[in-house]
Write a structure and sequence with these properties.
There is one protein chain. About 70% of the residues lie in helices and about 0% in strands. The chain contains twelve helices and no strands. α8 packs parallel to α10 and α10 runs antiparallel to α11. The termini are far apart.
């Protein structure tokens, strides 16, 4: 059984219904036709006219499917105006592991600090040693969100250069969050 684009869009619109049963039924309906109709979901999740909760549910549905064709959509969503959409998209990309590294590397120098930060955070979760240079650059970023992600990447990868960067952040960063996490990773790395 194939579902039309209109039927999928109607189900998507029901994701924001006040009735819990209607929302659950909509999620179930959409999930039942995936990945056969995943292109419709890809198109609709990029539509900023939907309410935030509807779009977040679509992101979660796509994340649960873990279809490789969704990676490009998640990369685009790192530029979204809503921080929860960006965060879920960054986490979804991290879930792809090695397969997401190349698409994420295209964003580490993006002029949009939100996209840059989302990419750095996802790469930090993946923690592939050959991406250390990304974090050695990102820890100097003007935006604390990007530097925070860099701390996790440096701490997860480790090594002499990472330790030096973490020491610098622990002593000099203006953010208490960054300092605290840098110190935590320094303790972890010194015990290894």
């Amino acid at each position: 059984m194939i579902m039309s684009k209109e039927e999928i869009v109607n189900a998507i619109q029901n994701l924001n219904d006040e009735d819990d049963f209607v929302r659950l039924e909509a999620e179930s309906t959409i999930s039942m036709y995936m990945p056969a109709e995943i292109d419709v979901l890809h198109e609709e999740v990029l539509n900023i006219d939907y309410p935030k909760n509807t779009r977040l549910t679509m992101v979660e549905l796509l994340r649960d499917l873990k279809d490789p064709s969704s990676m490009d959509v998640f990369v685009k969503l790192l530029n979204d105006r809503n921080k929860w959409i960006r965060r879920q998209s960054s986490s979804a990309l991290a879930d792809y592991g090695e397969d997401a590294v190349e698409p994420l590397l295209t964003l580490v120098d993006d002029e949009n600090w939100r996209a840059r930060g989302g990419a750095v955070w996802a790469l930090a979760k993946i923690a592939r040693p050959d991406t250390l240079d990304v974090f050695l650059k990102a820890y100097k970023d003007e935006k604390s969100f990007v530097r925070s992600g860099a701390v996790f990447g440096l701490g997860n990868i480790g090594g002499d250069e990472a330790v030096e960067a973490l020491k610098y952040l622990a002593e000099n960063d203006e953010s208490g969050y960054i300092k605290a996490n840098a110190l935590t990773f320094l303790d972890k790395l010194s015990g290894e």
